[in-house]
Amino acid sequence: MSRLLCATFFSVLLAALPLARPAQAQVVTAGPDSVRVARASDARTDSLRRTERLLGFRVTRPQKAAILAAVLPGAGQLYNRRYWKLPLVYGALGGTGYGLYYHQIRYKEYVRGKEARIAGRPDPGPRSSLETSLQGVETGIVFYRRWRDSFIAYSALAYTLTILDALVDAHLRDFDISEDLSLRVEPALLPPASFAARPQAGVALTLQLK
């Protein structure tokens, strides 16, 4: 279980690393004119900037939220100020954790019951002792072991989802979802197909998202 959780932890941290390259200026040449298109760093959104600090390192908001959620479940949601998600986080982790604990206890009980029956001693388990044969005890071992392994996977999945939720929520924290949409129709001159041709009249459609 510890190996699975560690692998999940490092995979989420790697997913949180920035993939964007540093912004650079580009030169676009079309015909006789050239236009310099500057993609400055201040044109990027805040979610891609290293504006936060964590243990002395500058990180982005999504990175910090993911690391906090990985270290302490629910910390990423607190950082994003999504307090209403805390019951969901601890409900998912608590439910899967209890299922893992329950089936692990039953599995150990049936294993001890099998060992006692093979050694000729009375079965000490409150449930395994009710089995009328050794075959029934072995069936119980297989049953509870299968469910224990399943809840290990469920616990790892719930843990991963809490980290991904904090990561995605931090990315969408400053996302503009306003309904201020406008469409403008304006006359425009279409560029000529060749140097000898004249510009053609046309219509420009401009859609503003903000």
Protein described:
By secondary structure, this protein is α+β, with helices and mostly antiparallel strands. It has one domain (about 1-20, about 40-180). The chain has 5 helices and 6 strands; from the N terminus they run αββββααααββ. It has helices at about 1-15, 60-70, 75-80, 85-120, 135-170, and strands at about 25-30, 35-40, 50-55, 55-60, 180-190, 200-210. Strands 1-2 form a two-stranded antiparallel sheet. β1 and β2 (about 35-40) form a beta hairpin. α1 runs antiparallel to α2. The model is unreliable at about 15-45 (pLDDT under 50).
Average pLDDT metric: 77
Count up the domains: 1
Order of helices and strands: HEEEEHHHHEE
Helix percent reads 40-55%
Largest sheet: 2 strands, antiparallel
Summary?
The protein is an alpha+beta fold and 210 residues long. It has helices spanning 2-16, 61-71, 75-79, 86-118, 134-171, and strands at residues 25-30, 33-38, 52-54, 57-59, 182-190, 200-208. The protein contains five helices and six strands, in the order H-E-E-E-E-H-H-H-H-E-E.
What is this structure's SSE topology?
Elements lengths: L1 H15 L8 E6 L2 E6 L13 E3 L2 E3 L1 H11 L3 H5 L6 H33 L15 H38 L10 E9 L9 E9 L2
Antiparallel strand pairs: 1-2, 3-4, 5-6
Note the main attributes of this structure.
two-stranded antiparallel ribbon; 5 helices; alpha+beta; 49% helix; two-stranded antiparallel sheet; 210 residues
